[in-house]
Every structure is written in structure tokens, then in C-alpha cells.
Amino acid sequence: MVLVELVGVAALAVGGYLCHAGWRELRTVYHVLRGDPHPVRELDGYTGPVEVEGTAAADEAGTVTAPFTGSECLAYTYEVAELRSSGKSSSWHTLDEGAAGVDFLVDDGTGRVRVDPDGADLRLGEHSVRVSPGTELPDRLAEYVAATDAVDEQDRTVNLLVTELHVGNEQRFTERRLDVGESVYVYGQARRGDAPDWGSDRVDAVLGAGPGAPVFVVSDTGERATAWRFARAGLWRAGLGAVVLLLALLGLASLLLS
Q: Of 101, 199, 226, 251, which is the most exposed, with the fewest CB atoms less than 10 Å away?
């Protein structure tokens, strides 16, 4: 009986966590859709929460190099996961992940504004490569694996005399980038930055994280598509969490009434 009660309490905790995670994603949808993007030219001297959309361009900071493709970009996230099996089930386990970026500009045709991506929730298009055990890695991935303690190359073999059997786990290398020239949407807090040069179409505001903005989002698509990305992630988490919570409450209630 005690074990069943513990399982019920654990299910309550899991359901509560999923509902909270889903609510956070859906809260971002509300903030993204409650207003419209501002023309950049109106941000000169502006402070406070604001959203803009336009084309991403490099600033004085230049670009960063994405780890798996070597692409020069403005911001990226990456993840390495391994497919592990247990009995009849299998699931992906994250081995390494990270993010980086540099200050960049958003150009909407009315002006340009600088964005500091530090602390942003980056929602960017995904580029994935899956590598089967025994497959030789491309040079760039091989260099990354050799330099990363958390990730091992899955190139082991077992000699069966008549053939060799490749053993190990399938790996997935995922890279998400904001490239120069891509469409970009930003919701964050505007603060005063350095004054632009005389005749420049850059405004003096800098968009970034701040206490005045409920969220800080950088996405490589438009406003509505960005909202859908968050909604899709929030709905399945909140829905699954609600189901788990309901089943846990029904199970615990039946125990108390029996």
C-alpha cells in the first residue's frame, strides 16, 4: 500500500512539473501575441519591453562559429544525444549541449537596432545529423568529439571471424543557428546604448534581458510562427501534465476511500 501511495505522490510531482513547464511556454505565447512589433526607427531613446522583427545582420562583434557545421552565424545552440535501449524501449539521452552568440542588428527597413542575445530563449531552425555505430564521422564532428570528454565516438567493433559487428549507440548532433540575412523576431527589454554615428540609421536602443520584460525571445521566424513554436511545446506539456495529475488524484482518492 505504501509503495502505491509513493507512486501516486511521484505522479503528482511529475504532473505538476509538466503543467508548470507548459504554463511557462503558453505565458510566452501571450506576451508575443498581445502586441505588434514596433518600427525600429521609433526606438531611439526608448526603454521598456518591446518586440521587433526584420532581418538579422552582423554588428561590430562579427560572427561566431557553429560547432558542427563550422558555419559563421550570429547565435547558435547545440545538443548531442545518444539513443540508448533498455529492454524493448529506447530513448535519447543528452550528452552535451550549449549555446553562444554575439551582439547583432535587426534591420526592419525603417532602421537598425542592436540586440544582446545573452540570456535569450533562442528558438531557431534545427539542423540534425544522425550517425549510426561504426560510421566514420565527418571531420568537423570528429574534431568536436575528440575535444569533448562527455561524448565518445561509437566506432567499436566485435570480430565474429566471418564478419565484424559494429557496436555502440546511434548519436544525434543537432545545431540551431541564427544566420546573417535570416528573418528574426525579438521580444525583450530596450535600454539606452551608445549613440550611433552621425548619419547612421541605427537607433541608440539595445534589446536584451531585463527586469522590465517578462520574457526575452530571439527567433528566426516571424511573430506568429514564433508564438506557434511556444504554443506547440506548451500544449503537449500542459496536456500530458493534466492527464498525469488527474490519474494520480483518482488513484490516491480511491486508496483513501477504500
A: 199
Of 20, 67, 253, the closest CA to residue 177 belongs to 67
Q: 24: how many CB neighbours lie within 10 A of its CB?
A: 16
Inter-residue contact 202 to 40 (CB < 8 Å) = no
Using the CB atoms, write b or e for 207-243: b if 16+ within 10 Å.
bbbbeebebbbbbbbebeebbebbbebbeebbebbee
**Residue 172 grid cell:** 544525434
Which pLDDT tens digit goes with each residue over 135-165? 788 889 989 998 998 888 776 666 656 666 6
Closest CA to 212 of 248, 244, 188: 188
Beta strands in the chain (DSSP E): 48-58, 64-65, 72-73, 75-86, 89-101, 104-107, 112-115, 121-123, 126-131, 156-159, 164-167, 171-178, 183-192, 202-208, 217-219
